[in-house]
Every structure is written in C-alpha cells, then in structure tokens.
Write a structure and sequence with these properties.
homodimer; alpha/beta; eight-stranded parallel barrel; 31 strands; elongated; disordered N terminus
C-alpha cells in the first residue's frame, strides 16, 4: 500500500493546492472571532486541564435551569475566589475581567453556549431544521439527518426513537419534494439516490442491544427497524446505520446484513452503514460486506469515517484489560483511511462510497485515487459535519463534488453531548482544522502523507501508566467475541451433564460425618446441582486438631512457595474458568457476566495476595542507626476459620482463604450451605495447586458448624462475610476467652449495607438511571454492595421516577442460563419469602412504583421500586438483600447526604452529579467504605477498589487492598545489637 | 599550628627516613607469613563482611570448651554447605580447601587463635608474664602492665580487680628488684622513675562508675584505689589511669585530680593518666590538668594516645542522638595529636610526656618537635603495644629513646576481646602498619603530614545514614554533662516547692464532680504530691456528649493543623522537660534516667505520629487505569476512650491520646489514679498546644470510670494499656452492641508479659548479666517489657547465677531523687503487697537466690531472684510487675526456646548468644512482639522498635510504628468515573 501512496503524492499535492485555493479566505465558524468561545477554546487548546473543566461545564449546562446555578457551576468549574489558583494559573482572569467577566451572567453564558451548539445543530426539531436543510440543498449540499436523543435505557424510549424516525422521514420527504432538482445530488454511478437520508443510531432502537445476546438484540432492534424501513422504501429515503462503540461493531454489522437479507428488504438499494478507519478490522469488515453484497446482488452505501469514539473506547477497553481494537496512533488511522479509500473506490460497482472527512490531505488523496482509477465524480460523495470545516465544504462543492452534511437535529440537552464531542474533535492536537486554522501550518506540512516512521517521536494520544505494577486485574470475558460465547455455552452443557452427582473430597485425611447437603438450582428448584457430605461437630474438633498440627510445617514453608501455590491456583481457575462459571450459574442463579466476574475476582484475589505477600514477606529495616539492626517481620497467627457467603461463592472465599494461607496460617473453611459445590471446587483447586493436607479443610455445613468454629479455643482468626446479626454474634462470641485459648481472637467481619445512590439535579440522568438500575438489580440485588436506596433531588425527582420505571420495566428477568438474562432468581425459597415480606412492608410504608411479582417455578423476585420512602421506613433502614429499591426525595444535596448517612451501615454509596462542589462534599461527608462517583456502586475491583465498610457494616481492612494481609499475621520487631567488642558491621 | 608543622617537615622527613632504616628488614609479628591468620587477615582486609564474621568468631571462641562446638561455630560464622554463598562469595573456599581446610579441626582453630592472642598478651598471670617482662627490660624496654579482666558488674568483682592490682604490684616489684640497672629507663628529666608501672582500668574498680553520680562514683572508686596507691608509693611504682569511653572521660579526670589532691597522695610523683587525641576536648583537658599541676606542685605523667574506642563511642553517641565528641576523621585526630605534641613537650617541666603511637610519621614528628625545643631524649618516652609494630619498637630503642610497652596480662577469655580490638586496629583502612607492611606505600606517602584539605575526598569512617528521615528520636539527657545534672536538681527543687497543692483543669467546660484524688510519693508515702478532682459517672456522660459535639469540627480541621498541634506539644514538653521529669520522679518513684526516658518517649510519640500522619493524610491513588480515579482516604472513627497506665505516665498516654487526636478523633482520657498529676500535665500541655475544648477531656478516676467509658454506646475506639485481666474484660464488654451504638468498637489493648531472656553457652556473660539485671530491675520491674524470666543454658548456669547474684547485690536501691539510685520503690502499698505475696509463692516453688527485702518508709521491694524455677511454677507463668526474676535451666537452646514460649504472653523476649544459628532460630521461633538480640529487652524506641505483643499480651498494631495510626481511622475508597461524554482528563 505505501508504495501506491507514494506514487500518488504529486497528484495529492496538486489537488490539495487546488482545493486550498478554493477554500481560501474563509474560516470555520467555530474559529471565527465572534464570541468568547474563541478565547475559551484558545485557552483550552493550550491547557488540557482547563479544557476538561470547560467542556465539563458545557456538558452540565443544559441540565441546569436556574441562572443562579449556572453561575455557581461556572465558579465551581472555572474557578473564582474559592479556587483563585485556577483562575490565575490558567489565565482565566483575562476572560473574566474583559470579554467574559464584564457581562458575565448565567443567562449570558447559557445563550453563548447555545449559540455555540447551534453552530452544529440545525434545529431542535425537524420542522425547525427544514429551512436550513432547504438552504443547504439550494447551495448544492445534501444532508443526512441525525436525530439527537438521550441514551435509550428502556423499551419505551426505543419506541419513541422509532417514532421520531418515522416522523422525521415523513416530514423530510414532504419538504424535499419541493426542492429544486440538482442532478449531482440525486444520481450516482449506480442510479438515482433519494433526496432524504436518515442516519440511524441503532443503540437508540433498543435497550437490549447487547453483544452477549445476538438473537435478543436482533429481535429487539429489527422489530423497530422494519416500520422505518418500510416507510423509507415507500418514500423513498436512504438509511445509514451509524457506527458506535467498538464492542457493538460486529453486532451492528450482523444486524445490518441480516435485516437487509430479509426477503422484504433484500432489494432495497439505499441501505448503508458507517465504518471506522480507526478500527483494525475495518478492511476485513469491508471485504466481508463485499462478499455479502455480491450474494445479495444489490449495492449498499458505505460511509468511511475516522471514528468518533477513540478516547472512550480506548479508556473502556483499557479499564477492562482488553486489547484495544483501535489503532493507537492517529497516523495509523490516517494511513488505514487512505488504504481503505483504495479498497472502496476500486469496488464502486458494489458499493456507494461516502467519505467523511474534514482533512485537506484526505480530500486530495481521495481525489487522487479516484483520478488514478478513472472514476467519474458522481461515483463517490463527501460527507462533512454540519457546522464544521465550512471552507472545505465550499471547496469540494466548488470543485463539483457531491457533498452531504451530517446534520444533527434535536434538543439542546442531548445536543450538548454532541457539542462537546465536536469541540473535542476541533480542539484536539490531531485536528486538521486546528492545525490549519489555529496553528497555521504550511500547506506542505498539511498535505504530507501519514508517515509511520514518525511514530517513535510521537506521544500516544493517552499517556501510558508509568509505574510497572506487579498485579494486573484479570480481564473479564469479552462476550462480544463469538468464541467466548460458545465456550460458555459448551461449559454449561458439560456441567449440566454432571448435575445430581455426589462429590467426595479428594482429601485422604478427614471423612465428614455430618448429613448430606444437596445443592439446588435456584432457577429450577427441582434440579439437584450436586450432593456433598456435610460436617458434624466431631469433624470440627478433628479438623482443628489437624490444622494445628499441619500449621507447624506450613508456617515454615517459604513465602515463595506459598506465593507460588496461589499463582498455581489462579492458573487452574483460568484453565477451568468457563466450567466454574457454569457451576455458579447453575448453583447460584447468576447471569453469565456476573458468574464470570466472580471467577475474575477469585483469580484477582489469588494474584493480588500473592504479589502483596511477596512485598510484605521480607523483613523491613527500621531506622538507620549504626550498631543496631531493627527489623519488622510478619508471622502467621495460627488456625483461621473462614465462614463464607454464597453470593460470591468463589471470589469471597478465595480471597479469605488465600489471604490466610499465603501468610502462613492453616484454614478451616466453611462454605455456605447454599453454595457447597463452589466451596468444594475452591478446596479442590487449592489442593491441586499444592496446599498440603491438613492445612486447608473444607467443612460444608450450617450455622452450628460456624458457631463451633467461632467458639473453639484453638482458632486464632475468624473471617466472616454475611449478615449483620450473625457477624455481631461472632464478634461477641469470639471475645470471651475460652480455657486453653492462647491468643485473643481476631475477627474480620463483613456484614452488609443499606447502600444509597444520591442523584442530584446536575446529574447526567442517562448515566444515573442506568447506574441505579444496574446497582440495585445486579445479581438480583444479592450483593452487599448493592444499591437499595436512591436519594433524588426534588428538582428531578419526578422525571427520574418516570425514566427509572421505564428502565426497570425493560429489564429481562429470567433464567440465567440464557445469555440475555439481566435478572435471575434469588438464592432460595427462604430468601424469596423474606424479600416478599419486605415488599409487603414497603407497600404499607411507601408508594409502590414497580411491582416485581414474577411467577415461575424458580425463586424469582422481579425488581421492585418504592417511591416517596422516608428515612425511618424499614425499607429505608434494613438490609433486604433482593432487587428492592427505595427512592427518597431530598430538597438539597446536604439533605441527601444526611439521609444517605442515616443508617447504621457504612458500606457502599454513590453519587451522580456534575457539580464539583457536591462531589467534593460527598468525598468528605458520605460516610461509606466505598464511595463511587458517577458510576454504579457494585463491582469493586481487587487492587483498584479495595472493598469493605465500617460502622455496622464491617470490621477489618478492605479486601483486595494492601492492608488486608497484615490482619492474618502478628508483627514482630527484632532488634539486634550488632556492636561487639567495639565493632559493628560496616553499613 | 599548621605553619609550625610545615616548618618542621624537612626534619620530620629526615628523622622518619632514619627510623625507617633502623626498622628495616623486620615485619610485625601479626603480618608474618606464619600461619593461617595471615591469610584470614588478608581476606578480612579485602572484605569487611568477612572481617566482621571472622572477628566475631574469634570473639566467641574462648567461651566454647567443646571442640565439636568450635567447628559448628566456625561453620556458622564462616560458612559451609549451609551457606555456600558465603564461602564462594568471600573466597573462603580458598582457605578451607588449602591452608585452613585440610587440617581444620576445633582444636587446631583454638590453638591458632590462642597463638595469635599470645602475640599480644604476655601471659595469663603475672607469674607467667614476668619472664617476658624481664627479657624486655634486658632489651631496654620498660613495661606498663595492664591486667585484663571481665567487665566489672558487681562490687565483688571490683574488689577482685583491686586485689589483683595489689598482687601484681607486689610481684612485679619483687621481680623488678633484680633487674639490671638501665639509666634511660629509670630516670627522666624530672627525676627517678620506678621500674614498675601499672595501667589501671578505673571502670574495673567500681560497678558504680556512673557520670550521673559524681560523688557515689568517687567514693566507690577511691575506696579501692587508696590501698593500691598506698602500695605503689611504698614500692615505688607508677600508676596510670587508662582512658575509656567518652562518657566517662570527664569523670575519670575528676577522680584523678581529686584523689591526687588528697593530702596522702598530693606528693606522689608517679601518677599519670592517658588522654586521647581523637577527643575534641583534649587540649582543653591538658590545659586544665596543667593548671592543677601548678597548684599541686608535683608533676604527673600524661600518656597521649590516639584513642581506642572510636567505633563504639561513635556508634553509641549516634544511637543516642548525641553530638559525637570525637573527631570524625582520622586525619583530624592525627593533626590534633601533632598539635598536642607541641603542647605536652613545651610543658615538660610539669608533666612527663609519654607518646603512644605506632606511626612512623608521628614518631618522626615528635622527634622533630623535641629537637626544635632542644629537649634531652629522657624528657619523654614512647609507648607501644606489646606485640605490635615490633620494627618501630626496634627503631626507637636503637635511636636511644625510652620505650615502654603496654603489656596485657590475663586469661584468654577477656584477652580475646583485647585481641579483637588489636586486630581491628591493625586491619583498619587507616592503620599505619597496614599501609606500610601490607599495602607497602612509599615512605614519602607514609611520612606526609595529615592534610585537612584531603578531607573532602575521604569517606568518613562509618557511612552516614543515606535516607533522610523526617522523624528523629529525641536524645535522652546526657547526664555526664554537669549542666544536665544541675537542671534536674533545680527542677526537683522547684517541684518540691509545689507539693501538696490542689490543681484544677484549665478547661472551662467541664467541672468534675467525683471524689478528690490524692497523689502520693511512693518513696515517701506521707508526702502528697498533688490533689485533683476525680470524675463521676455523670461526668462521663457529659464528657462524651461534648466530645461527640466537638468532633464535628475537629474532624474537619486540616491534617496540617492537627500535625502542627502535636509538634507544638512536643516543643512544650521539651521546654518543660526537667520539670515534668521531676514530677514523675516524685509521683511515680522513677530514677532520673527512667523519668527522662519517659519524657523523651512522649516527645517521640508526638513527633512520630505527627510525621506519620503527614505521610498518611493525603489520598493515595490506587491503580493507574485511565478514565477512573481511585483514591484511598482515612477518616476518623469518632470518640476515643484512652485508659492509661501509671508506669509510663507521660509517654504511653501521650502516644495513645496524640494518635487519636492527630487522626481527627476526639478523646476522653482517663489517666491512672496512681499517676493523676502526670495525666493532668499531659492534658494541660495538649490544650496549650491548641487542642480545642471538648476535643480532649481528662477524667481522672478508677476502674468505674473506665468501665463506664467502655460500655458507652458513643465510644468508637478504646485504647487501653494495663493488666491482662482488665484488658480481656474490656475486650469482652466492648463486643456487646449497645442500643444506639453506630459502629463496632475497636479495642486496642496492651496487656503485659512474662518476658524471658535466654542466655546460651556462647553468650558474652558480661553483657548477658548486665542486660538481665537492667531488664528485670529497671523501674523496679514495673514495665510490661521487663524481664521476669532468665532461661540459662546448663553449661553456664552455675557461673551465671554466681555473677548474677553479685551484680544484683551491688545495685543501689533507694530514693529515686538521688541521682545514683538504680532501683526505686514500687508504685504503692497494693503493688508492694502483691509482689510480696509472689515472693512467698516463689519461696515455696523454687530456690531463693537473692532476697530483696528492703525496709524503709517507702514502698520498696529489692530485686529478688529465684533459681531452679520450673515451667509450671506460678513465678514462671504469672506477671508479677516487680523486680522479681525467675531463673530456669535449659539443656539446649531448643529447650530454652520452648520454655520461653510456654506462657500465654508474647510481648518481649531476649537472647544473649554469639551463635549465629541460635540467633537465627530465635528470629524464627521466639514468639514475642519485640525480640532483642544481645541487648536488654526494655527501652524500645519510637520508630526504631515499634512496641507491642500478641497472644494474650495485646491486640493491635505496635505503638510507635507505622501501622499504629491506621487503627484510629476508617479507610474509605473513592472511585470516580472521570470519563464524561467520551473524554477523560489527560493523565
């Protein structure tokens, strides 16, 4: 490819010069010296911290209705007396004192930002936009209308988007029917093209667009697309699928080809989709589409863009630990764009190529390729964004090329998000427009080819982490990958084939003598998942005796060996990952992703504690004085009892057990009687990894076994995760010295929460509602971190409730073996009954917004929402451990915080807000162990979000944090006098 | 001075060449290629780590009687299969394979080392040595005999040394009477000089040589010196005081001048003392002595040496944080020596100058100065060490100068310590002999003057600490300084003048309504130290309510402000240091140094926790992923109850209270009813430093007040130091949830110990006995860290008991206001009665070795020792908290460890051993919180030896360590999603 590129360079430069001449004397609207935005944008381009604050401020603006509050937020974001440093440091003083400051008012700011938004948005409605579209047509520019909207978080919202599309098509077609005829815009090399084009945001057509669930996603999207398509075919109009985040790319292409293979739509010649040059797979995708088009026999349009989700996709993939599927460097994307230009133009008999670009070099390059292929000018079109790069719009039009403007239509509120993306694009270091119109680079530079050799001198777009960390989180499965989905299906089949078996511990040492424990599938209670021997109280005595004996050599095992065993166990879990997840899906009723997340967390605990113990195991020297050597060492405490819960049946016990083991303690592990199989697997894996007989003993059983362990004089440490009542009982029991006891017991208890999410009036409601729903319904609310209270500012309370209800109504409740299931059953009949009791209590105390009644053979409870809950209501105070949400209204952020803090728990909490001051207040005053800002409140990651609460939520250091392991050891300080006969070792 | 020096250089070089010629063809015995020591010493000179091991091995040898064990120790120190790295790394393979290895046996090693020792020691007894001394005299060399001995740790041993001196003088005089007459050796410029000279180690003449106690030291030393002097005058013989460690220098000079000012000894013309050129004050000391000699009218001898305690003095002063009074660089010492040469030779009408040196340059320099002053050769003498620098001995004798050899006589055991010092001297980088005979430097280099300008290129002898630490331990008072002693006396007078007063809290907030508390002087129980209002249970309720309220603003106070308050409190304590120590002496019966140590520790706690909170207070970022900001923060827990003991009545509560305060908690502080005045002062100081009203409340009172605090629902944290029974009761009480309680109480308890010191058969008994005595009698045994068991290897059990008894018998028990007092009273009648009960128990269980009965009006209990105690005896199991020691016999080190670990406590422990394997075993298996190797087991320093135990000794992190503060906080993790509208702040 690169040799081809080089041979085109003279043509590229010639055409580039020509286009530049045509564009001369014009400035893009955004860079015109019209209003303060120009000053602000200049500042933003000089300073990325200021840019962040400015764009965040612009982002929050539409949600604020009160002028006073606009001023407050302006101060919070852009500084004033409260943060004078900001003002002086970023040179904002200049604006506030002159152009901006003199007439600064909330109203003025709003109107200025609205004006800026209007640069890019043709109108709030199609009616409002049509005069602009007509003007553009008359100037020889076609449009592709994009209906801006909030994120779709419910079926109702998806329906609404469908209806808006239908309306828009009708209106546009009506309007366009009276436009003058312009041949270049109405016909290409393959035939006539409609005057009207609509760009479709497919994710807006379904709340269920989820790559894990191909079939469900297709059904949901296609059902809403068909009426749109039917209409488009009638009018006619062309329809283009916009491309979105990388994880839905394959799904969208699949939907596209499947839909347009349906008999009714197979002959429709005006379908198209956008593809992104920054994606590494795009050439492959185009080739796939070409094959499909050949089969179908009817062409499609392909709009090639560079891609608009680079930052967020890169960040999200990195956060998940997945390989980023996008090119890391802009120059690689540019090169790929040019390469794809060849591919598309050379296949113009099958596709209608459309090129989205605002880059002079790219324009000239496309021209040069087309010229080299001898293509007529109607064989492709350019697409640019409404309001952007007007000089180039002018130039290509003058040059006799077809130009289509991607034209957003919609409200200011969703429009603001669109504005911010455009501003980011224009002000980016890599922006061609910035280079030409702000930095005034030479034409030679601007037209230079994307040279890969320059890469080494370039910074990547986002800086890399600079510290090398020993520990890295295990990535969750990317279920947008077909092989991941197939592996899980396969594992489910394998596990299903073993259901009902009786399992026996591989330990030769101790044969349990208690009653048989039967594990049942919560989704199908008649199905026995597995049978295991339970422990008797005699077994407890035996197990402790063996553990004491085994400890003698285990504590002398080297730290390296113990660390190695944890790494081995992690490897075994990785190898058996899908199978273990499948067991968990069947034993605990977890949806796929939740089960996979539990596996990931278990692996993380093993790797994190292994790495952390390596850090802690070697003696640390204290002080630097000569003649004395003071060292701090850690020694194991003794036998540890681990009393584990069922809700994270692998991860939580893995963390507790492995922490105790790696630090040199022996362990008696009582898995929950609700998840004995997962306890069995954990024990087997640790044994296989090398934990010696006696050092780890698994005693499946109920509360009596737990009590016997807690009261045993030779148990040095007790680690419990479960309910508050049991936890407090353990604390009390363990504090009484028993004859023969040699150490004060250490008790680590994690006891639950009554976790609140505060949503203030500046919150991004799309995010807030999604976050609240995910946090209260994830694993059917059976997480100690789950949200059970939403405290919502009065100003948005009603609209919050409306959208919340729609979102909850749209959840898929059902069998967790189905990949599309969002909410499965609860763990058992007892849990179901308790939750149902609370629902009855709630009905008396508050207003039932959503009734979660679900019928079925399994232990189902659908997500249930109470509104107008007050602080003292039981549903606002007591942990329910089910998908029950209490929504409370607060008059102010301060009141919301007071409400949030008004339980005895302090585990997790969340805030959705775009007010820096409120976020800061929450940092200081929201009294929880794990506070989440602008994100869901479950899913703490080992190492990054060490997990645990205080008050009556727990005692002990956070799991997955660097203070955790020291709880399993005693600290010894050894001080040696090294001075002997007047001499000490040289230091 | 330096100009004088320079003008002497031609003469120095001329004479140096002449002396070098006279010494030519000879090698110092030590560097002769006679036996393996030469190889070993060469290796040692190349590698300091090997040198340490080799010299340590040599040091331990005499204590080992068994050949097998010699081999074992050789392997432990010098490596074998167990530590192959050592062998290969240090090239020891070479020796062990060839010269050493082939015929390596315990016996061979012993005899080789003994042979090496014999190089430096003229004989085990004076009888054995006299033939050598006679030979030397006949070769024209006089002697100064030095009687080697163990350290004197009892009066009996001091008497023994006195007797040995008397015997030696008699024998030597007898022998010398038949020596031929040698004029140069028998007459100097001031008259006749005796044939016999004895060098006296003054510290061997008294166990009580202690600069804090001038008068007591003088009485004790002078009483034993007088008979020696009387004899020396009769014979006649000359007597020279050796100079020792820097902290006794001034005391020794005082003793010298005071004794020789006594009428009986005023005319004695053969007294002398050694002075050290490495000491910065020596010129001043010589001038002081010259004035005194002028008054006295009779000359003295001054032996100028460079000084032999540089390493140990430097290390000990640094460890204490005191300014080192010695020159840091050898070149400065050399320059000072030359400068002092001028001073001494120019005053030879008043003093008999003697120059101790083995340095050719120095010899030549002295000659040059004497020549320039025109002194006759008999006006000064040279002193060299027997067995060292024989070529120079030869040269100066040939040159017609008087030479006296410093000649040690004594057993191999104390002799080995002497040998090691000589080996260190010879193998040091700075050793002239090494430079000439091993490194073969040129004569020009060897004779070059000590040039100060070269300093910058030189390394100091001991490397400096490389890390800058924010925290530095406050130095204890150096009571060898007269002004320190005077300040304390003055403070005692001031405090005495205030005894009996009633004190009122400066707090305006809470007037206590409980009964009046009277504090009494344990040394004089009829003396009321002070009166204070006690708290009632109503007051507890009030105080907690106020503390909860005050917490609201205190927790919001910046970390900087709280840190600043601690620093201010530390400054206030420094300012009022002697006064506070005086209060403690009177209220708690602590001897001066113990009271001062408590002040120091209190200051350390304030400074350490301040520095540590500065480290911890700022949020810590977790993970490096883009788009998310995870931070760990610490928030205060709430109201903290501090229930404090009386035995460290300032330090311990200062630590507990300041840790709670600096982390943002409010504090209710209950000082012990046995030390209410110290509690009062602490509270006043913290208030004065800026702790706001309500944030700190002092409630003096008894157990009822403690109980009320423990059971209060609004107390979040309880910090207790005291007895095991009370501690366990608190743990139990606090674990029951009380209605209204909002947080699980955290209880930090420090509960005591039954601490053992193991003394194995390789131990340095001088150190071991001193260490055991200090550890069990310090503050009359009333420290939780105190030793209460000594576990002694059977091989040395009997000799240990004999010396231990003598050492204990020699302790000064009495009024702690007297600076010389080593053991004061116990705290009160109750404590005395309890200890007396245990003495009665012990008498039934074991053999009473030392009865500590002391009569007196105060609550005295003298140090009491039981021998043959067995594991199950109550005196071996129960904490007595008094100066009671149980001595137990162990057949092996392993058994000793088992015995040591056989109590329910695990606080402190100690080992005296010179077996690396045993020390390593102790590191692994001695199950205590603070283990001390080859040093006393009390006196843990903040930061360097964080303090605390486990098992039933305590719960919680170590005080004065970097894990302590986190106990007073809850950990909060805040995770912000920073990605908004597709962009995140640049990282």
């Amino acid at each position: 490819m690169s040799t081809m590129s080089f041979s085109l360079e003279p043509a590229v430069y010639r055409i580039g010069e020509q286009l530049a001449r045509l564009s001369a004397g014009r400035t893009p609207t955004l860079f015109e010296r019209r209003w303060w935005s120009q000053t602000a944008l200049n500042l933003a381009m000089q300073d990325s911290a200021f840019k962040t604050q400015l764009f965040r401020f612009i982002d929050v603006l539409p949600s604020v209705t009160d002028d006073e509050q606009v001023m407050t937020l302006a101060r919070e974001y852009l500084g004033d007396g409260a943060t004078p440093l900001f003002v002086t440091r970023w040179g904002l003083k200049a604006i506030s004192a002159t152009s901006l400051g003199a007439r600064l008012s909330g109203k003025a700011i709003r109107s200025q930002v609205e004006q800026m938004a209007r640069t890019f948005i043709a109108g709030a409605t199609v009616e409002e936009a049509t005069p602009r579209l007509t003007d553009l047509w008359q100037q020889g520019r076609a449009c592709s209308v994009d209906l801006l909207g909030e994120a779709t978080i419910s079926d109702r919202e998806a329906d609404r988007y469908r209806d808006r599309c239908l309306e828009a098509l009708t209106l546009l077609a009506q309007e366009a029917s009276v436009w003058p005829s312009i041949s270049l815009l109405e016909r290409d090399h393959l035939g006539p093209i409609p005057r009207v084009q609509l760009s479709l945001k497919i994710s807006a057509l379904s709340h269920h667009l989820d790559p894990i669930d191909r079939e469900g996603s297709y059904r949901s999207v296609a059902a809403r697309l068909r009426p749109i398509l039917d209409l488009a075919m009638r009018l006619p109009a062309s329809l283009i699928f916009d491309m979105e985040q990388a994880d839905t790319k394959t799904l969208l292409i699949e939907i596209f080809t499947r839909l347009f293979s349906e008999p009714s739509y197979k002959a429709y010649p005006h379908a198209g989709l956008a593809l992104q040059a920054y994606h590494r797979e795009t050439a492959q995708d185009i080739n796939g589409l070409l094959s499909w088009v050949r089969q179908r026999g009817v062409p499609i349009a392909i709009r090639l863009v560079k891609g608009a989700y680079w930052d967020s996709d890169t960040i999200r993939y990195r956060q998940r630990g997945w390989a980023v599927p996008l090119f890391e460097h802009k120059v690689l994307t540019d090169a790929n764009y040019e390469s794809l230009t060849h591919l598309m133009l050379s296949q113009s008999s099958l596709i209608r190529p459309a090129f989205g670009t605002h880059n002079l070099r790219t324009l000239a390059y496309i021209e040069a390729v087309a010229e080299s292929l001898g293509l007529p000018p109607e064989a492709w079109e350019y697409q640019m964004i409404y309001g952007m790069a007007e000089p180039f719009q002018h130039a290509v039009t003058q040059h006799g090329r077809r130009l289509r403007l991607y034209t957003p239509v919609g409200d200011l509120l969703p429009g603001m998000a669109y504005l911010v993306r455009r501003l980011l694009e224009n002000t980016s270091n890599e922006s061609f427009l910035r280079k030409e119109y702000v930095e005034c680079q030479t034409l030679r530079t601007l037209l230079a080819p994307p040279v890969l050799e320059r890469l080494s001198q370039k910074q990547p777009f986002v800086s890399q982490p600079t510290r090398t960390q020993e520990f890295r989180n295990e990535p969750q499965r990317d279920f947008s990958q077909a092989d991941s989905r197939m592996a899980m299906q396969q594992a489910l089949t394998t596990v299903r084939s073993q259901l009902g078996r009786q399992w026996t511990s591989s330990s030769e040492e101790l044969r349990l003598t208690g009653p048989l424990i039967e594990s049942r599938n919560p989704g199908r209670p008649d199905e026995v998942v597995g049978r295991l021997s339970g422990a008797s109280s005699d077994d407890v005595e035996q197990a402790v005796r063996r553990a004491v004996r085994a400890w003698e050599s285990w504590r002398d095992t080297t730290a390296e060996r113990r660390v190695e065993i944890l790494h081995t166990a992690a490897s075994l879990m990785r190898t058996r990952r899908d199978e273990l997840a499948a067991w968990e899906i069947l034993e605990c009723g977890k949806p796929w992703r939740e089960a996979d997340a539990d596996l990931v967390e278990a692996i993380d605990f093993l790797e994190f504690y292994a790495a952390d113990w390596r850090r802690l195991a070697s003696p640390k020297r204290l002080g630097q004085e000569p003649g004395e050597l003071n060292q701090r060492l850690y020694s194991p405490r003794g036998v540890t009892a681990v009393i584990a819960p069922w809700n994270f049946p692998l991860a939580i016990p893995t963390g507790m057990v492995s922490a105790a083991l790696v630090t040199g303690n022996s362990v008696i592990f009582k898995p929950s009687e609700r998840s004995p199989m997962m306890g069995y697997w954990l024990t087997e894996i640790l044994r296989e990894a090398g934990v010696p007989e006696g050092v780890l003993c698994c005693l499946p059983g109920g509360p009596d076994i737990g009590r016997a362990l807690v009261r045993h004089p030779e148990i040095a440490t007790i680690v419990f995760t479960g309910s508050k009542d049991v936890g407090l009982g353990i604390l009390k029991d363990a504090s009484t010295l028993i004859p023969g006891q040699q150490i004060v017991k250490r008790v680590l208890v994690e006891m639950g929460g009554k976790n609140a999410i505060i949503v203030d009036e500046t919150a991004d409601l799309d995010d807030a509602i999604t976050g609240v729903v995910a946090s209260f319904t994830g694993y059917t609310g059976q997480k100690c971190s789950a949200c059970s209270r939403a405290i919502v500012h009065a100003a948005i309370y009603d609209s919050f409730l409306v959208r919340l209800k729609e979102a909850v109504l749209s959840l898929k409740v059902g069998n967790p073996e189905e990949p599309g299931t969002q909410v499965g059953p609860v763990i058992d009949r007892r849990a179901q009954a308790k939750i149902q009791d609370y629902i009855e209590i709630g009905k008396k105390e508050a207003r039932l917004l959503m009734d979660g009644t679900v019928t079925g053979p399994g232990w189902y409870i659908g997500p249930t929402v109470f509104a107008d809950v007050t602080q003292t209501d039981r549903v606002a105070q007591e942990e329910i451990f089910g998908p029950i949400l209490a929504v409370m209204k607060a008059a102010s952020f301060q009141e919301a915080l007071t409400l949030a803090n008004s339980t005895a728990y302090a585990l997790t909490g969340g805030v959705y807000s775009r007010s820096p001051a409120n976020l800061e207040l929450a940092r200081q005053r929201f009294d929880v162990g794990n506070l989440y800002l602008n994100r869901p409140i479950t899913g703490a990651l080992v190492g990054r979000q060490p997990f645990g609460g205080h008050r009556l939520s727990g005692v002990g250091a956070k799991a997955g944090g660097e203070e955790y392991l020291t709880q399993f050891v005693v600290t010894r300080v050894i001080s040696e006098q090294t001075l002997r006969q007047g001499f000490a070792p040289a230091e």
